[in-house]
Structure prediction request, 834 residues.
Amino acid sequence: MSDLLSIGSSGVTAYQRALATVSNNIANVNTDGYTRQDVSLAANQPRQLGGSYLGTGARFDAVQRQYDAFVESNLRNSNSDLQSQKPLLSYVNRLIDVMGDESIGLTTAMNRFFESARDLSSDPASVVSRSIFLRDADGLAARFRQLAGQFEIMDNETRQSVETDVGQANALTSQLALMNKQLAKHTSADKQPSELLDQRDLLLRELSGLVAIKTRFEPNGAVTVSVGDTLDQGILVSKTTARAISVGDSTIEPGKLEFMLDAYGTPETMSSITSGKIGGVMNFREQVLNPAAYSMNDLASTLVTQINQVHRDGLDAEGQLGGDLFGFVPAPSGKAAGMTLLVQDANRIAAAGQFRVIDDPLNSGTAQARIRYAAPEFLGPSQLRGELSQAKAPQIATIGVNIEASQGVASLGLIPIGTQDLSLTLHAPGPGQNLQVLTRDGRHLLGSPLNASQQALLLKTANGMEAGATYSTAQINGVAPDTYLGMDIFMGAIAEVGLEQQFDSTSGEALAPLKNTAKLTGQTFVDSPDSLAAGALSLNGQALPALSGPLTLAKVVNWLNTAAASEPASSRTLASAVGGKLVLSRPAGNTTDDVRLGLGTGTPADLKRLGFDTTLHVKGSTSDDLLIFVSDNSLVPGDPASTVQVTAQFADIQGDMKQTLRASALQVEFTSDQDYKIIDSRTQTVLAERSLIPDPLSATPSLNYRGLKLEFSTAPKSGDQFTIDGNRDGIGNNETMLRMVALEDERLMPGGLTITEAYIERVNQVGNVARQAAIADQALQVVYRQAQEARDSISGVSLDEEASALVRFQQAYQANAKVMQTAMALFDTILQVR
Prediction:
């Protein structure tokens, strides 16, 4: 009876514990992270009886967690992916609402700005239109600031979100380290409390929602957690140690956040987090918010640069050059946040162009002219040749120049407009060598007349000439003030009045310089058998008579003094021989006139016979671009190239073609229906003589001069005149505001987009991200649900299953209790036997 009783007792005990386990499952059906537990029952050791073995009942073996490591890992990964989409989708939708809103977005403000510019261009003198333009310009700047402010708010929000989530992640890793410490008490996971392991898995799942993790489990259930590419990199938790994540501003890329592990221990740089809630926020910052902010700053910078460039080129209502319309004040979040309107006075709006054209009322034709200016781009040289361009005082540059016989001429480059106090010297010139100075329109200013082949060779756009330039010697070797545009330009040998610095003998202070008489001293004179033709040389602008050879120093001195005898004694140039050198000087007391020994019809070789090198002098500043060549008329085809040495020095280059053109009115006179000439009204200098060239881009005729483009409504007639001036009163035209309006359609942004299109394109890009995020969110929700269902099918508690098990175990319990009752009844029966 005892065997039957013990067997029943073991069954009752086993199923009592089974019922307790099922009850625990039912009680924790809604406990987050709970893993369903199953009871494991085993048969007791059988007992041998005779030749057979009899069973001795059942025993409770263990409680087993229904857990699959792969399914749990898949759930964590899908959780990380899903959580990364939620903040991205939320923030992107907010950004679209901001950028596309009419009250905050840029499209409306830009349209209003250009519309008011269009209205002002139709009536540039209107005070009302100017005020409206100023208001809308200020509104555009304010809209940029508002939008940048919204970007800054979102930047701060996302930054705080990342910092908060990083703090939560650090708290979870600390708890996992403590969990590992508890798990270290046992050597096997089978011996660990199920609730402790459930808590570990729940912490891992919560951590995976913040950042994607990799895990490795020890035999006792302790976990190693990593956020690196491998388990050996970016370790967050190892045994009982947790490493904190820190977040801060990047030192390399402004506006970007960077992460670091264990910043106060063993620092380790982390790659950017791309998954989990933190990854979703970071993706929004790096892929959407920051590019949008950078794009906004680029848009603001380009818009302000282009508008300011147009505005600076215009004239305001008072005839003054326009300044910058917009500017930037320092702002921490970028240029757009600091955009501001600089002009506060409506009269300071530059609506007019810097030039205007006036049709002569007596013109016989009906042509009306329109003027505009664009910085010219010429072919050929843009400065002096080689090292000569670096010869700014105190530097002096010298180069050797080869002149090919097939060409007979070599370019020395360009003397840019505004070049000051230039000296360019031809050393030891050969018999046929000479300097040639021409304007871009073929006005020959200095040198010797060119033959037809030389003209054809030099008057090419490839050499820097204007298209349609014609050759003229009307002003060749002129004498100031009758030179080209009144420039003091001279070729020959020159000596200026000297200045000697004086100091007060008592105080040592500098006094006004003492002027010394001009004195021109040549090199050692060498007698020659040559003669000088009449007019070959000039002295102070007066042609010198002929001088027959041979040339001696005494003969030359007498010749020069005889030629100067007719001049007033107070200004007469005196020639003398000093130490074997020819010396020309003004009389004592004359400290106003310089000495100029120049070329007339002669060549530098003629001047060299008197002991002087030929130098191109520009006193003051050049008023136009000057093309300079060195020629050799002695060469014939087949000769070897000749060489010459050239030295240059200049004080500075401070020229502006546009403002130089504005300084004097230009007269355009048509000498026939096709031919015209351009005259400087101030000096009456003929600047160009050309014929109209058909414009392939326009059906109406036009002409160009140094960047000025004059367009005619119809073909001009012979005798028609047009005056171009600097529009000093600022109301002559609306060119600047028309250019401002044209900016709306100009493709100024990368990709050939207009400013408005670039902004709309950026909004569309944000919208595309939103659509992609919404699609990804839907797909990842499905993936997460599948992972959750897979986990629930293994580890989840089903009340139906547990109710079934409860009934089953209850019946088994009752049956074993009945066995015990039967054993007791049998025992009682035995006791009653007498």
